[in-house]
Every structure is written in C-alpha cells, then in structure tokens.
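Reminder to self: tokens first, then the designed residues, so the page reads top to bottom the way the pipeline ran.
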C-alpha cells in the first residue's frame, strides 16, 4: 500500500507519461504539478517508487516511466476512490444518441467507444442460444429460393438463404411461417433443441416442413456464439508504441477469433464489475503489451461484453468511464 504522497507522485508521473509518452523527470513533476512538497522530496519518492517496482528508468540519464505494477496501483486507486464509478453523464448521452437504430446498435456503440477513448473498441453481442425468438419470417424470393429472417428479443436480426429443388408457392411458406410462429415465438434455441411441439412433429410428414425447420435450426446455430464488433485499429497505429504495424500483428491475430475473445474478456466479469487487465496480467501472451478495460452487460448466457484495448499508457480514467457508459446504454436496450 502506497502512502498518499507517493500515490500522488505516481499519479502525476503516469498522467504526464500518458499525455506525452516520454520518460518523466522530477523537474517536470515539480514544475507542472502541485504536489505540495520540495524537489528533493519528489526525487526521494521517485527513488522509493523505483525500488518498489512501480516505475523504471529506461536509460541512466532518462526520466522514469511506469511499470505494469505502477499502472495497477494507479488503477486500483481510481477504482477505490470512485471518481468514475457511475460513468460520465455526457458520455452516456453521446453513446445513447449514437445507438438509436436497433440493427446497428452494437456497431455504433463500438464506433462511439473508439472515438471517445482513442483506443480499439470491442462489443461482443450476447449469444442467441438463450435469446427468445420475437419474430420469424419466411420470405419468398422466387419459386426456388426463400429467406429465413429471425428477430430475437434483444433485437438481433438473423437470416439464412434457402434453395428448393422443386417450386414452392409463397402461400405455402406463409402457412409454414404461421405454424413456426405459433410453435417457436417466445422460445429459445435451447428450448427448440430440447423439444419440438407436438403440432410440429405431426407436420414432419411434409418434407418441406422438415427442410425449413432444419434451415431454421441452422440459422440459429450459426449465430449461437457471440459476435464481435471491432473498431479503432487506426487509433492504435497512431500510438508511439505501435508505430510499426508489425507490432500490432500478434494482437490482431488473437482478436480475430470471437471464441477466444469471449474467453479472454469473460474472466472475472459480472454484470456490475469493470475489469482492468494491465500488460502481463492478460491471460493471452499476445496481449502482454496492452491493457484491457471490460464490462459485462445483460445477464448469464444472454450477456455480452464491451471492452477497450489500448497501450498500457492509456487514459484509464476515460477508458473506465467510457466502458461503463457503454455498459449502461447496452443494459438499457
């Protein structure tokens, strides 16, 4: 546990380093921050912080930069002191205004989150496995083609294209649509896979009903995993830490797999928590050079995740505020 004075010195050093990405000297801290102590005391506190592993000196004649342990002490103090507990009201309002169209809710939220934090943003949608079906449509494209369109209770829109070997009249599809809606509206994929209504079992003698039912199940199964909306790679490329695009390759490779993403972000998350993983605290080695701020929205299997990823030299206060604002917006939808 750091003393209040050492915490202030560490916070000032981190604030300066976040702003300029340059090693920070004692003179800079004395001149730019009202620490209320003498230059000699600041130098002494920096030495103590360095001995404790909170800061390090990259070169003998250079100033100091924070270590992962230093960032961790800073973030813990942020979370405990509560200045970002409720999120920023203006940020919540901006995100809410950016996400008024249901079909593009997640994409717009991710875009706004990236803009607010200047980091890579990721919004993982809830899995449809436990989402109840709200609407099901069978749209005839022509006699040999149709489209299944499913809307879940949280507003996700799923679709699948079907081909028929024999002509199918639009009236027949409309009849099946009515049957499927009677049987499946209000049920989840999990419910559908466990048991099929007796009324539908009786209709299995009809090959078309069997075919469309199979296609419906496939449509839901294809979307049963969470999907990620990622934006802000260009923001990361502008950071000094990632000035060479090759340094981002390992990070982007691991972030391409939505299943891996869910595993990475899900650890320790609850509906009320905001988790901050700094550098080597991340379970994936490829993320050892970045920090992740993540929160869960929704509940249980219907939960999604909102996160920002940036250099360990990120503005943690703003990132935590933005993630909590996005969590609040998505929770209210």
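Designed residues (333 positions):
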């Amino acid at each position: 546990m750091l003393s209040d004075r050492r915490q202030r010195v560490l916070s000032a050093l981190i604030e300066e380093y976040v702003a300029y990405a340059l090693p920070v000297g004692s003179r800079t801290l004395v001149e730019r921050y009202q620490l209320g102590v003498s230059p000699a005391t600041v130098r002494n506190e920096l030495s103590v912080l360095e001995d404790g592993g909170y800061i390090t000196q990259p070169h003998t004649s250079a100033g100091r930069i924070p270590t992962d342990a230093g960032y961790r002490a800073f973030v813990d103090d942020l979370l405990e002191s509560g200045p970002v507990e409720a999120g920023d009201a203006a940020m919540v309002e901006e995100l809410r205004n950016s996400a008024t169209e249901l079909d593009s809710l997640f994409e717009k939220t991710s875009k706004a989150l990236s803009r607010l934090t200047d980091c890579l943003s990721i919004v993982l949608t809830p899995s449809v496995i436990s989402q109840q079906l709200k609407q099901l449509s069978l749209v005839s494209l022509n006699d040999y083609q149709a489209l299944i369109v499913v809307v879940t209770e949280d507003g996700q829109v799923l679709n699948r294209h079907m081909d028929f070997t024999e002509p199918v009249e639009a009236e027949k599809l409309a009849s099946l649509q009515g049957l499927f809606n009677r049987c499946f509206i209000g049920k989840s994929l999990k419910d559908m896979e466990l048991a099929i209504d007796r009324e539908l079992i009786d209709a299995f003698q009809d090959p078309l009903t069997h075919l469309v039912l199979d296609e419906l199940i496939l449509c839901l199964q294809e979307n049963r995993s969470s999907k990620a909306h990622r934006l802000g790679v260009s923001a990361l490329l502008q950071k000094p830490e990632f000035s060479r695009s090759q340094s981002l390759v390992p990070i982007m490779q691991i972030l391409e797999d939505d299943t891996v993403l869910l595993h990475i972000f899900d650890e320790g998350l609850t509906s009320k928590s905001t988790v901050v993983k700094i550098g080597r605290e991340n379970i994936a080695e490829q993320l050892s050079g970045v920090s992740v701020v993540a929160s869960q929205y929704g509940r249980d299997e219907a939960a999604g995740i909102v996160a920002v990823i940036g250099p360990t030299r990120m503005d943690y206060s703003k990132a935590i505020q933005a993630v909590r604002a996005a969590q609040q917006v998505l929770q209210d939808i």
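The first strand starts at residue 55 and ends at 56.
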